């Protein structure tokens, strides 16, 4: 985990529950329609995104943090994964620095739309 | 990025001193400056009062377009301890989330009001993910084993060749030099024979300095003159031609100098006076 500008670690949890949500949820939840997305197949786990984010709101975590998931298959995927990427949408300003920094184009800035 | 936002010079200098790249240090310093400015304006960073969030949501609902898209979210019922150094406490976060969801009226799945933070899952990176080959590999081999194995075999071959050569070829040191007895032929080692041959035709200044100098300059300019990125021999016409000319020119000079020059550095055919070549 990268340290913040102030030398602190962001607030982290270890009991995440992976849940399927509908698009409306995402849109209601935080104001901007744009959201950061990540294509896992392309990610090389370099943690550069974590490092560059000025607001320290994107983090790569160990799969251990997932306590439960909606479906068994999702839980299996979570427990077999190399990494879990979490973003704090309320803190993220959609500055897309992480998108630009990502060396393998795994991150993207997408629009929540029909 | 617009330059209107001031950067926090102190943060910037510290990040630069810590080896952070210029662009990222600038972004972080800008973020720090914005935070500072907001705090100076008396704004409450991070946790906002629930009423303010509900008002923002109402405004948002008023001019909201359609919905859509898709996402996977995370939520938790963590009981985090307070005192997070200026960050949102779990209670503040759940208040914020609850307010942003408009309470019970929301039709979305939403985050339960007991949730203590607003993290969204971006992705799970499966083991296959980081090994997946996206495109067909072309023209690529791995250093190990492909290259190193070939290099090792080449090393063995050259080593054994040298061993055999040193066993069969006699390459003694000559007798002590005697200034009263100048040998009939005095030749440079074979790799300098081209130069020595050139001295036969040109003034020493031209043969020894100008021509090699020009050659070196041309060699240095090659990457700028021939920018062809292809690695296939048939696409490298200029490079092929240049090397062919070099071989034709220099190789022939070396051969002439080594084998076709006899006493007094005059032209002789090897079958009249024997080879003028010494090891
Ligand atoms: S878009 Fe900007 S603020 Fe959001 S996660 Fe990426 S770097 Fe951080
Ligand atoms: S910068 Fe891109 S490749 Fe690196 S960890 Fe982040 S998403 Fe993965």
UniProtKB/TrEMBL annotation, chain A:
Keywords: Iron, Iron-sulfur, Metal-binding. One of its GO terms (molecular function) is iron-sulfur cluster binding. InterPro entries: 4Fe4S_Fe-S-bd, 4Fe4S_Fe_S_CS. It holds the Pfam family Fer4_7. Residues 34-63, 83-112 form the 4Fe-4S ferredoxin-type domain. Signal peptide: none annotated. The keyword Metal-binding applies. This is 4Fe-4S ferredoxin-type domain-containing protein. It comes from Egicoccus halophilus.
TrEMBL record, chain B:
It comes from the Bacteria. It is a multi-pass membrane protein. Residues 60-93 are annotated as: Disordered. The chain crosses the membrane at residues 147-169, 201-226, 238-260. It comes from Egicoccus halophilus. This is Cytochrome b/b6 C-terminal region profile domain-containing protein. The keyword Transmembrane helix applies. It is found in: Membrane. GO terms for molecular function: electron transfer activity; metal ion binding; oxidoreductase activity. Its main location: membrane. Residues 133-279 form the Cytochrome b/b6 C-terminal region profile domain. PROSITE patterns: CYTB_CTER (PS51003). GO terms for cellular component: membrane. Keywords: Electron transport, Heme, Iron, Membrane, Metal-binding, Transmembrane, Transmembrane helix, Transport.
